[in-house]
């Protein structure tokens, strides 16, 4: 029993979609892993009280609210990456994404994600082999 061209095209589209979704999940996991400032042992305000569900602050009883920009500074310090280095990694990732979209190769996006992770980690960045 042979498959028609339409069925083969449909299967190919599904495979590409699956690869793209797998890449999206991997990217999400990477971003989650790199998120700084998260402490699972920090207490939370009980749900029945004002501000319930939020992270409890320090010994002063504050809710731990930070002024705008403070969270980003904490995140950068936790990751040990400078804003300039992060901006360069973002620039590289945008260029890789444009390139991979142009050549329409799902494997290229996977390699681009690996390059982005290496850049953020301060590791050597391999060239795109496409």
Q: Over all CA atoms, what is the radius of gyration?
A: 21 Å
What percent of residues adopt helix (DSSP H or I)?
Answer: 55-70%
**H/E topology pattern:** HHHH
Beta-sheet strand percentage?
under 5%
Overall, the morphology is: flat
Structural class given helices, strands, pairing? mainly alpha
- Give a short account of the largest sheet: none
Number of helices: 4
Would you tell me the overall average pLDDT? 77
Taking the alpha carbons of the first and last residues, their distance comes to 35 Å
Q: What ranges have pLDDT less than 50 throughout 5 or more consecutive residues?
A: 59-68
Q: Using DSSP, what is the number of strands? A: 0
Region (Disordered): 36-77
Biased composition (Gly residues): 49-61
What does this structure look like?
The structure is a single chain. By secondary structure, this protein is mainly alpha-helical. It contains 4 helices and no strands. The two termini are 35 Å apart. Mean pLDDT is 77; it is low at 59-68.
Characteristics of this structure?
single chain, 130 residues, mainly alpha, 59% helix, flat
Element layout with pairings:
Elements: H1 5-34, H2 70-79, H3 83-103, H4 106-121
Helix pairs in contact: 1-4, 3-4
Question: What's the gist of this structure?
Answer:
This protein has 130 residues and is an all-alpha fold.
